[in-house]
Here is the input.
Amino acid sequence: MNDLQVQQTPSSRQMRLVIVGHVDHGKSTLVGRLLSDTGSLPEGKIDFVKDICERQGKVFEFAFLLDALEEEQDQGITIDTSQIFFKTQKRHYVIIDAPGHKEFLKNMVTGAADAESALLLIDAYEGVQEQSRRHGYILKLLGLTQVAVVINKMDLVDYDPEVYFRIKTEYSEFLKSLGVEAHEFIPVSAKKGVNIAQRAEEMPWYKGPTILEMLDRFEESAPPSHLPFRFPVQDVYKFDERRIIAGRVEAGRMKVGDSLVFSPSNKKGVVKSIEAWSVPEAPVEASSSQSIGFCLTEQIFVERGEVATRLDEVPIVSTTFDANLFWMGKRHLEKGRTYTLKLTTQEVPCEVVEFKRVIDASTLETLPNQDFIAKNDVAELTLKTRKPVVFDLFGQSPATGRFVMVDEYDVCGGGIIITYVPSNKEDKLRDEVRWRDHNWTKSNIKPEERAYRNGHRAALILITGESGAGKAELARKLEEQLFNLNFQSYLLDRRNVRLGVSADLAKADSPPTEETVRRFGEVTRLFLDAGHVVISTSNAFYQNEDADIRLLAQPCPVVEVLLSDDPPPGEYDMVLSLIEAGKAGESAKKICQYLKDKKILIGHNYSI
Amino acid sequence: MDHLDELEHQSIFILREAYKNFKNLAMLWSIGKDSTVLVWLARKAFFGHCPIPLVHIDTSYKIPEMIEYRDKVAKEWNLNLVVGQNKKALDEGMNHTMGRMVCCEALKTQGLATVMAEKGYTGLILGIRRDEEGTRAKERYFSPRDKNFEWNFKDQPPELWDQFKTTFAEGTHIRIHPILHWTELNVWEYILREKIPIIDLYFANKEGKRYRSLGCAPCTTPIDSKASTVEEIVEELKYHTTTSERSGRAQDQEDTYAMQKLRARGYM
Here is the structure.
């Protein structure tokens, strides 16, 4: 290598390239050949591998250069993704060699999800196979569009242009049906080193680039700094006097002095500083894919999972959306089971509401009347989460529009959000709440100052259970105990609200309506804004109404205490048996302890 | 952002995910360049602090300068250092002449297992990189180990879009690899840019020898090199290196699949 060439590779940044395709179509051989032809192997590596082959009585293959695991050499197939490093005159590469066996799709996905560009291999002799199509589909789902197709083993078909053009036509049509266009179809023989680093004399009819030329034409992916600002909170640190909100900018940019709103809590703040350690000068702005931390001009409570954005570019907040999903789990994805959805830094339980279309990813055929997704298949479906999640459509902001699903301990599915229709009552109410919070006139007294004076944060305690369970007695006892501890407690009786605020709507004892619930929720909100611990009771019968009240009470915490010997499935903060509930004084004490543990009762003179 | 920023920001993201998701977390510090860069990255991630305890597995055969450097840096950087050692094996006279793989397994793997059990760590951060050797090329950022400390490389969890495996069954633990995607050259370029103090053993001495990878004294040999500064090491790696990084590590050469066998049983 002369000095001029040396100067042409100034940066050690690596382009991330994945090589996919059907099993045995020659991926590992191609990678081995690329390493060897670009002089990227350490000294003696080829001899070392040849030596092992001789000792084990095997014929040397380029693929053996990468198969580090004994099992892989024995089976002759790649089991896991392997990352290999090499460089051309233009730049450094990391090649991700992904397995082509159907059983190892999750490993292929792992490799491809992180790549900037892809080579998809098809064996000229065998033609388009099951995994050729499945991998094409997965690349599309992962949002990878920089793809070139490599038609390998041309030596086995005597470098026949007819074979090349037949495969090219067939596979182009398949890609077209996915909405993908390949950059190039390159005929090669990885085994013989034809059209890899050197142009082939065997195929004068092919005028396109060699593999190395193609790689150097791919473009580095740029971080999405042009999109609306998206900052999912990863954690909040208080290692010293600073309270730092930490996370990664997933899209857009931000600078000191910007006003931000956090969803779903709708809390607002102004960026006071961007914090950093051991940097030449303190940063004043941040952009996409940077892991940063910032302080706000006033301290507000925000938690992991919330997403900071600009006020006029808020994301969607909902519990239902439609997605395209691929499944890699050993067990089928089914209705009626609960999974964990992980989207940005949010983690919520979720369920499948409807399978709209289940697809065999190797043929793109719809599997009719199928109410599950088997391993390695794909579907369009509707999901419902137990708590609202913050997201965007994948097409508008990829990093906040994709998610994984966890079954028990393992990530089993990956999906992208394709549509969202704000159709249900809850979404409508949530939009109203957001509008209300954005326009709310703020007092000079901050919620944190009230909390400091009162010794507690504002919160709603909802005591639920069947009629006769002892809710009213417990609520009265709790109000009294909190009051005696010098806390601002208030038992907000629904009947009292109906008697006055909702007197124009219905009689005090008739069942709740949407509007009476809304008014009760808004009155609760006012008491919470005043900093109180509000206590309320509700019949288990009216669970949907409770969901509305929770929504109206946000961003204050809602603590649900269920009185029951046989609690129905669901998430409760606390469950008390009917015998416990009968001892109202003791139960109230337990609730007080719980509120202390949850840092709602923080004690007087507590500094936050 | 240049390529070092890209690497740094990704590693910080991983460190913060680990810190948030694991209550009982530790970081392995071998005193070598990679894990020292890792400690530096933790201080970046946590704004000058390192809230994660650092575990050093002392085989008692380490090159003496390493212990001196370790204690000095731990003091200066205000680190919470935990030293682990398999005293039982040492009392019974374990050393490399009993077989290098046997010795590595007893003093390093079992030494680590003992500290993990004592302290109840469920997450362990390590500074391994994919470009070091073949089995590490197949690692995940968050990589599960079973009850027996073993790595099932044939059935690894998928990892996509930076959503990591953070839930696991009782009795198992997760290895976390924040600089998995860095290369040896990246590490030295970063040391240069950040001016990270690195142990002298990496720099060429008067006899024209330097260590490229650090381990136990009897099993690690220095390479021929004139590179006596960080700049010169970067230069050497960029343009003049044709051997592999771990060529001076004797245990790797013990068996064709030495590292695979060691790592499957819990070696770093």
